[in-house]
Amino acid sequence: MQDNILVVGSSGQIGTELVLELRKIYGNDRVIASDIVRSSQEIMNSGQFEILDITDNKKLLSIVKKHNISQIYLLAAILSANAEKNISFAWDLNMKSLFNVLNLAKEKLIKKIFWPSSIAVFGPTTPKNLTPQYTITEPNTVYGISKLSGERWCEYYFNKFNVDVRSIRYPGLIGWKSNPGGGTTDYAVEIFHQAIQKKAYTSFLSEHTTLPMMYMTDAIRATIQIMEAPSENIKIRSSYNLAGISFNPKEISNEISKHIEGFKINYSADFRQEIADSWPQSINDSLSREHWNWKSKYNLKIMTDEMMINLKNKYKLASDEK
Ligand code: NAD
Ligand code: SER
Prior knowledge:
Elements: E1 4-8, H1 13-26, E2 31-35, H2 41-46, E3 49-51, H3 57-66, E4 69-74, H4 80-85, H5 87-106, E5 112-114, E6 117-118, H6 142-161, E7 164-166, E8 168-170, E9 172-174, H7 187-198, E10 200-203, E11 211-215, H8 216-228, E12 240-241, E13 245-247, H9 249-257, E14 264-267, H10 272-277, H11 286-292, H12 300-321
Parallel strand pairs: 1-2, 1-4, 2-3, 4-5, 5-7, 6-8, 8-12, 9-11, 10-14
Antiparallel strand pairs: 11-13
The structure holds nicotinamide-adenine-dinucleotide and serine.
């Protein structure tokens, strides 16, 4: 029998794209979207959607039973910048959501889980360049602490209860279909929108702040690839390093300038600078490549070209509709 999939957090930056890609592969009726708020029109129109607060264990169980769910992609979380503004709420949501889903698998009510970790598991004492899979992890943000704890719990549930949980440490993600939800890497999406609309952007990170990033198309491909890999290939049950592109605000603005004549960038660093400064600049993902054949496809130029074409189209369509 084929698996039915539940995506929790389907209205967010990743969920908006992941649900549609999963539906393309497994069929519209096999992929159930869920969130505390409605998802995009495309998601609402192409398959089933449930309002679900993932901290509500009873409702989660009833949805799993109703749709005969066997796989869950758990995307609901509070991201790095927002988490610093409400630390206990962020800790509670990020941990409770994971336990609720891990426990369903422990009780054999579902078979497989995807849960994303982040480059935020690293901290100021971590080596910054080509950060290895196994290294110092001393995060100093509530988000990073919750992701590192989550990784330890995933590995624990795999070792003790044979829970098939798979995870990757996403870098900052950049896509044109959806907006980011309160992270430190959000500037790298905002800059495209502002460049098209205003030919100017004020970055909340300083010009030389290099961070690991990835185009959403690569991230979605990695997510589905790790979930489809044979179980014995997934040798790391905490979370895998994943690398795409590394750049700073100056470098991305230079690339955008090739598409937007007269584009200007200014810098006005805020509280997110300290978070960014604690994270690596580039990631070594050799174990993802070795274990489940991961390879990123997008560099800064190709990503910028795609973002520009698609966003310009999107804004043109929106203004034609007015
Ligand atoms: P997002 O903030 O855009 O989306 C999260 C979604 O979860 C939102 O739609 C929100 O409404 C929903 N949500 C919040 N509370 C909920 C609750 N109680 N029950 C159900 N849904 C709830 O986040 P995203 O960027 O899509 O990230 C998804 C996951 O990937 C998160 O775990 C995040 O930490 C991780 N991640 C994201 C990035 C990135 O750059 N986007 C990088 C690293 C890791
Ligand atoms: N993009 C995420 C954030 O900035 C990284 O996990 O919070």
